Amino acid sequence: MLRNYxxxxxxxxxxxxxFSLINILGLSxxxxxxxxxxxxxxxxxxxxxxxxxxxxxxxVTSSFEGALGVFYNAGVTVxxxxxxxxxxxxxxxxxxxxxxxxxxxxxNQETGNKFKDPDFVIYTExxxxxxxxxxWLAGDSNSALEEPNMVVLTKERAIxxxxxxxxxxxxxxxxxxxxxxxxxxxxxxxxxxxxxxxxFEEFISLKTAARQDMTNAINESGWDNTNSASQLFLxxxxxxxxxxxxxxxxxxAKEHDxxxxxxxxxxxxxxxxxxxxxxxxxxxxxxxxxxxSRTTKAAxxxxxxxxxxxxxxxxxxxxxxxxAQAIKRAKEIGIRKTLGSSRSQLIVQYLGETFLLTLSxxxxxxxxxxxLLILFLDFIPAGLSFDIxxxxxxxxxxxxxxxxxxxxxxxxxxxxxxxxxxxxxFKQQIIPNSDKGSLRKYLTVFQFVIAQVFIIATLMxxxxxNYIMKKDMGFKTEAIAYFKTPWQDTSAVKRTRFVNRIQDLxxxxxxxxxxxxxxxxxxxxxDVKYIKDSTEVxxxxxxxxxxxxxxxxxxxxxxxxxxxxxxxxxxxxxxxxYLKAVGLENEVDIVGKNLIVDGxxxxxxxxxxxxxxxxxxxxxxxxxxxxxxxSGKWTQYKTIHFKLNSNETADWSKTIYGIEIIWKDxxxxxxxxxxxxxxxxxxxxxxxxxxxxxxxxxxxLAILISCLGLLGLVIHTTERRRKEIGIRKILGANxxxxxxxxxxxxxxxxxxxxxxxxxxxxxxxxxWLEEFATKTDLSWWIFALSxxxxxxxxxxxxxxxxxxxxxxxxxKSLRTE
Length: 817
Known about the structure:
The protein is an alpha+beta fold and 817 residues long. Helices cover 47% and strands 18% of the residues. Strands 1, 2, 3, 4, 5, 6, 7, 8, 9, 10, 11, 12 and 13 form a 13-stranded mixed beta sheet that branches. Strands 16, 17, 18, 19, 20, 21 and 22 form a seven-stranded mixed beta sheet that branches. Strands 15-23-14-24 form a four-stranded antiparallel beta sheet. Helix 12 (343-375) packs across helix 13 and helix 15 packs across helix 23. It is globular, with a radius of gyration of 34 Å.
């Protein structure tokens, strides 16, 4: 029987090659999108799932809630770890503090080989290895980090520093960090094989840092200092109640809050438990490799929705075309029922045919998926490859998806065909004209609603992106570039000498040593107090560090007052947004007044025009320009800004090469990296640019699937009405009239879809635009252009077949009928 079913299935598929091809193409597009997106979701959701007791491991983080919202920091205050240890609560099994550090270089003392900028280095305690279980190849986890000047390496890092040596032989050898900190290798561990965000490769004993500080955060013992370098993992006991531990952290934060914060309106700190499984997809705190391209849970949900929509569109094509073709198989159904086939047997047979088509689409989808992984390389996680489809769990998901698609696509057509009664079939009481196809119309409208929404969204996102990328940021960006000097090098003499040597280059028109550029990914804020009419106004103030030359380089505008005189005194130039924050309108009213910070009065000497410090998605925050009153390692003047001669763009690369030569002379052990301000501004909108590209592809695929379905229905309609077309042509109907006759019903569906899609798209885009402080108008022509485009595309698809049918010889069509 199975062999008979397969034979009939192949015959029917081959007999209706055009419709089978349309079905396979539509399903393959949806399936390939589902395969790739499913692989991405599986990849991102399976990070750090292999750890023993991983569900009991948490990172403690900090959040600060103030007047401008909530700010997040992955770090915690240094004393928190010790206080948790002293609690000796049964609910906490291990307390594992660690400090991230970034050495300039590390040297193999035996060979003298130096390795620049080793990454993923931390200071930590033996409790770290009790929280995370590593396979020890050499050394003892209990004692490896007990003493100062000890270091544990991963196998990969040991091979790099001590090539061709067994792990047991590496133990006892010495490494020297930054020419000053000696460490003896006390253990070798095997790195994690699974996908993980715990990427550390070198573990230096915490007592080493206490004696020879490489990261100043370790000696910051106060409760008022939160540094992202100081982090903490907890492993809870088996019977621990997470809420109880969270309450303990909340109590500790409250106990050590500054007394004046309770009534001053300043930010309130909280310590939060972050599950290990939440680290990978939570953008608030980041990961240890600082990968900014990581996705979020919201993005994964959006991708899954997109895959579901494309898959549904493919299934709708299948349902529409097969219910439309059902009438052709009525006689076959009647004979089978007469010979004893039950309705359930007919349904199983038809579902078998559907599965064959789905399987064919799946095979095609495998090749499309491999191509998509290459095409969307910038959107796909770096570690994701086609090999992930060999994972048993993912393979099981693929087969489950094929089963669901088979049932979703084939069950309704199977019900339609299996309900035919043999008597009615043989008496020809089932006639084509009785096939009104109401469900097909609803499903076709749904397809075009989706396509219209995608078109409108694509046009609007493109318009908004073009608007914000071309809008003036409020400062000059043309021909201006900058680079940061090595943060570990505290020599002000070197920086000054660097600036002086750059000034002598022919292609440079201006150069200045200052803090970060006016707009960047780095921000520094402080809580300030302003007294207005005996009323305290508390707010945040973003800080920008620079001189008058810096002000001129970026063409910032001074509205009132003057610039700070020098860096030896703290004077501030605030922006107009700060005036609004404190309730003032005239710039001169604030000049000469004071900001109060930690009880100190800091004079406001000027007011500058607002400019955007980040993406135009966000508003202009209260900001102040000041000098760097600190020197040495604490100075904010670590960035050199320079303006190239804009009339000599061909010589820019030569000038930058000259700067690089100076860099190698002054900082020979560090790499030279620079950035143009124009490129920095573009980076603000990488997320929106990726969204725009994905929308364009989604729109194209949705239109393609919808048009394939429309083409199939047009082919079915013209074949069903072939006799009518022949008679009308004999009676004098011209080509235009016949084309209109065959197309009008489908154009009605396109119009109905537009009427439904327009308000849906408007609502979604209106809410999306609300996220932008600076936004373009939601123009009417976006909707008009979308509707016209869909009509034109539909007409082209329909005309291909209707003109061919209208031009056919009526004598031939009537004879065959």
